[in-house]
Structure formats: structure tokens, C-alpha cells
Amino acid sequence: MDCRAFRRNHVAFVDDVLSIAEMRAMDQHRATCAACSRQDTMVRRSLLLIRNLPPIEPSPDFMARLNQRLDQLGPAARVDVVRRPQYYSPAALTAVAAGLIAVAYMAVETTQYFSPAPTAHVAPMIASVPAALEPAPTIANSAFVASIPTGMPVWPAMMMAGQAPMHFASLDFHDGELER
Question: Is 30 within 8 Å of 6 (Cβ atoms)?
Fold first, then answer.
């Protein structure tokens, strides 16, 4: 495990929701990497501090005082407290539109959407008749043939290993030239 994977899975590690194998890998990485160990210690201490804070509760008369203060401000002052949306100038809108048009133009040009498709030049080919193929070797083992319809798993390597002597006996070996 590397530091990036440790940081990515750290929240799940602290919450203890990873699989056993992932938890072991995280523990091993924490034991070998000083930087990740410091980060883990810092996060766990912070969580311990936050979880042990006493709950914050407003005073019993908080809502009454809040409503009284809102009544003192009045309707106009309440609107001023809320931010009004900013309206953009025509120059800013024009600049945004020009930027979008430039991005669209670049996208069309880089994908070459409207350019004609290049013509493919293929070298001339000559058709020839293939050499006579040897017939495929027949399956000699009747137990192998009988096992197929029953659904028993059959490894292709077993079949190749059983037929290898027959295959190599039918090959013709030729001397190759090693000179250039």
C-alpha cells in the first residue's frame, strides 16, 4: 500500500468499516510510514477531542431574544441582512459569451468534426490459395468426450498435454539459416 491509498481509505479506516485484509494493510503501512502515522495520530486525537466536548445548548430564553431582535430590525432591515444577488454588466456577459464561443470553436477544431475523413491507401493484395491444411486431430480419449455433456470442468491444458506427443510427431522440422 502506498501513501495515496492510505489517505484515500483513511476515513473508512478510522471508522473501522474496511475489510479485514484492508485493515491489516492500513495497519502495516501506518507502522512503516512515519508521515502516515503522524496523520493518523493527528486525526484520531482531533476526533477524540471533538467527541469529548460537552454539548452546546442555547439558553432557555434564546428564541425569545432572537425574535425580539428581529422585530426591532423591521422588514427593511431584514432584507438588508440577506445578500442581494449581483447583476452582471453587459460587458461581463459579452466576455463570458465570447469565451464560450472560443471554447466551442477549439472543441470543434481539435476533434476535426467537420473535416472530411482521410482516404485510406491500401497496398495492392494478391489472392492466393492456402496450402492444404492438416485435419484436426481427433479426440482419442472416450472419457474426455463423455465428461463434456455432464458439465464437469475440463481444462484445455489437459487436452493439449494428452495430444502433445501426437502433435509433435506429425511436425516436420527444418534447418533454419542463422546468417543474414
Answer: yes
The residues, ordered by sequence, that sit 6+ positions from 166 with a Cβ below 8 Å of its Cβ are 137
| CA torsion, ordered 27, 31, 35, 39, to nearest 10 deg | 40
Read out DSSP for 83-129?
PPPPPPPHHHHHHHHHHHHHHHHHHHHHHT-SSPPPPPP-------P
pLDDT in tens, 92-117: 888 888 999 988 888 877 776 666 66
3-state secondary structure of 25: helix
- What range defines the domain where residue 40 resides? 3-51
Contacts of 78 (CB under 8 A, 6+ apart): 70
If one counts the domains in the chain, the total is 1
